[in-house]
Structures
1.
Amino acid sequence: MKKGTSQDQKFYDILVISDDVVGDKMAGPGIRAWEISQCLAQNFNVVLAIPDYSPINLEGKEFPFDLILYSLSQASRLKKVAQRSRIILIQGYILSKFPFLKELPAYLIIDLYVPFPLENLFVHKWKLKSREEREFIHKNDLRVFNEQILYGDHFLCASQRQRDLFLGALLSLNRINPETLDNDPDLRNLISVVPFGLTEDKKVNREIEYIQQKEREEAELPQNENAFKFNEEMDYEISDHRLAVEKDGENKNNPVPRNALGPIRQYFPQTGSELSLIHI
């Protein structure tokens, strides 16, 4: 956490609210919120809000952004920070959990990368025996999702295929209409593609670690005829990963051109040709 700052009085460019835990072990929503915060903190004053039950030790640690804990039962601290934020980026069920976010003057960005109404249709098909329970959950998911579509100022998704899906949802609730189409023909001011992933350095490091592990395993194999054949196959596999690392390195040295259509969007990949995980 940054030193010499008072979160009770500080104003922020962007507040990112994670709907899932952040810590040493975290799932996709937590990872995405963390990586987006790191990316945006390079150019903006950012604060990341995470659940108070997140398994993270904050003592003695510093991050490129401020970090606060929020509670469902005591939302006053989150509300105070939100009131002093120019832009608020949320995901999942956050808008339903904290409806006061709808009333704030901040620019509201909704990250739709988890299409939970569709996902839960399949998850609960196998977890719940009662169709009545599944119908109740599905209707609630649709209520939460549609509320996001109605109140969001801008939307994020993780791929071009997701963008096509969410364009349909936006159209169904009249967020795409003659006026929006006249002012923004390609709808880039409405929804952006922000790929999910790690930073480029972490990605390359993991590829290198994979190669080194494979080479260690190869060195420990018994040197007989069968092992030689297996090693030969492994060499091809390792070579493929070396090529992947080299290609990633080339991508890193050739930044993707930006379409600067707003104060934040210029720092995210915008089109299908830009899905190279340059930043996140």
2.
Amino acid sequence: MAKVRGSAKSVKKSVALHDDLTQEASKTASEASVTADDTWTRWVGPDVVAGASETLDARRKTYSASRTGSAFLTSFDDGISFKCIRGPIGDGKSVLMCFYIVKKSHTQIALDVTENGVKKRIRWSKWLIARHTFKALQETTIETWNQWFGDRTRWKKNPGLVGRYEEELPDGTLCRIDFICHALESPNIINDLQSLELSGAWINEATQTTLKIVGRVYSRLKRFNPVPGLKEGPRPFHVIMDTNSPNETNWWYRKEMVEKPDGMKFFVQPPALLMRSKD
């Protein structure tokens, strides 16, 4: 698994901004009562074994983003619809997306919730994780997530793959992220997306799908509310996308290089080495 590197100064800046946003988000809360679902099972993969919590916690603390990655992590950009990054193969874009989802979800509004008689303050979000094929989604995208956050995540078939991440935060709140996973090549994908209620979405290798599907994914944001009836539910986020650099016929190239719409923000991860042509 490729590791993205960056300066200690960039990491400290990211942590400081995250702390500020978390404090701001904790000022607003709503009350609700729900029944917890205890049917989840741990995904036991090559990096998720006995003692993995300590191992992965130590691994997370060593993560350091590149300069481009740090810019992506620290600019939460609540005013945009799509946040996009492209770069060479193996440069750690997927790992960056995983960390962004967690850091962004840390800033969610805290809800005062009673679950099975127990009062909790939960920063509750729901994210779509999508890729072109289910095989690539499960064997690559979800595997990357589990290599960094598998100790805090449980999964089940429902009938597709859904997950739940939970983390106790220093301020006493619980960060909870519900995941729903979809293969965008599915012939029923339009209908499948139509029923979703999301806070945010991650489209991995986004150039492999169509702009129409990307638009349908975005249309399902701003809808997630874990407890119907709340006057103020969780805040919506945006669609994040990553890809290797596409050719000039792809919609990504057109949006980034030609149209440059206000609702899309693009980041470019440079290769490790640039060779100057002799011509």
